[in-house]
Specification:
Helices cover 29% and strands 22% of the residues. It is α/β, with parallel strands linked by helices. The structure holds guanosine-5'-triphosphate and zinc ion.
């Protein structure tokens, strides 16, 4: 038996990098099922596994270690079956632009809330700083201040000109990182700047998914250093999977709201109309930003209309 990391899933076989550095093509033995998850794929990129090598130099995956987190995509809106896109993420880089295209704080906050639910730490990467006007740069500084204070590290970069890319690369060392963000914010440009040797690959993948042929997604991790740092490329995946939560749970996924909610009069407070709400008081006193509170209410409203699941 050997231990290793799944770095590629082709649908019919898995590529495992063993802890002694070997690359082994692996298959799954028999009826491999995981407790709790109804998934179309029992093993995903990022999984730590034990493999049993056979004489042809390939191996069977015998065991999978418990995951610290994973991201899924539901096979369809109605289906309970889901596809695990990647497991054991150390972090997610959410690439955003103040303009060209505009990324709204509602989008950012919804993304951050689902990342909290999935227990994946997020850094915000503000791209295209070379293009902004004075006013846009001013707004950018405000956002960076806001999110840094809440506890999300922020980077200012220009993927096009290379500004700040070295610093970002430093933050990828030894970690498994997923890149997300709206279409057009510069993810491919950034990944190309980080992994120059992967140029062609990224081009192929986007050409492929632009044709709308991505009915099944097979993920791959690309090494970024010698110390098990990887970037996960997931064609067509923009956010985390959907999840169900109660009204009073939404606030748990906004770090600063959660902190203040300890002092609400009712422990199932939804921070809307309840008397003695410490969160509303904190918004009034500017300890919680209006934009974050608006995003919070926006999720609650969509939940009421049954739209939240569909939004991701
Ligand atoms: N001015 C400026 N333009 C950039 C920068 N980064 C990317 N762009 C441009 O933004 C456009 C979109 O970049 P992509 O890298 O294709 O964006 P993407 O996020 O991969 O988009 P999808 O593939 O649709 O998800 C391209 O025209 C890039 O040249 C930047 O730092 N500054
Ligand atoms: Zn409250």
């Amino acid at each position: 038996m050997k231990k290793g990391l799944v770095i590629k899933n082709t649908g019919s076989w898995y590529l495992v990098k063993t802890d002694d550095g070997e690359m082994v093509e692996c298959k799954i033995k028999g009826n491999f099922r995981l407790k709790g998850i109804r998934s179309t794929n029992p093993i995903a990129v990022g999984d730590r596994v034990q493999i049993a090598p056979n004489t042809e130099g390939t191996a069977f995956i015998a065991e999978i270690e418990d995951r610290k987190n994973y991201i899924i995509r539901r096979a369809s809106n109605l289906s309970k079956q889901s596809h695990i896109i990647a497991a054991n993420l150390d972090q997610c880089m959410l690439v955003v632009t103040v303009n060209y295209p505009e990324t709204s704080t509602i989008f950012i906050d919804r993304f951050l809330a689902s990342a909290e639910a999935y227990q994946v730490p997020v850094c915000l990467v503000f791209n295209k700083v070379d293009r902004y006007t004075e006013e846009e740069l001013h707004y950018l500084e405000g956002l960076i201040h806001l999110y840094t204070c809440i506890g999300y590290p922020c980077f200012r970069i220009s993927a096009l000109e290379g500004t700040g890319v070295a610093e970002l690369k430093e933050a990828l060392k030894g970690k498994v990182t997923l890149f997300s963000g709206h279409s057009g914010v510069g993810k491919s440009t950034l990944i190309n700047a980080i992994l120059p040797e992967q140029q062609l690959k990224t081009g192929e993948i986007s050409a492929y998914h632009n044709k709308g042929m991505h009915t099944t997604t097979f993920s791959e991790m690309f090494p970024v250093d010698e110390e098990n740092g990887y970037i996960i490329d997931t064609p067509g995946i923009k956010g985390f999977g959907t999840f169900d939560m109660k009204d009073e749970e939404v606030g748990h996924y906004f770090k600063e709201i959660f902190k203040f909610s300890a002092d609400c009069k009712y422990n199932n407070c939804t921070h809307r109309h309840e008397p003695g709400c410490a969160v509303r008081e904190a918004v009034e006193n500017h300890y919680i930003s209006e934009s974050r509170y608006t995003s919070y209410l926006n999720i609650l409203e969509d939940k009421e209309e049954g739209k939240y699941r569909a939004a991701y």
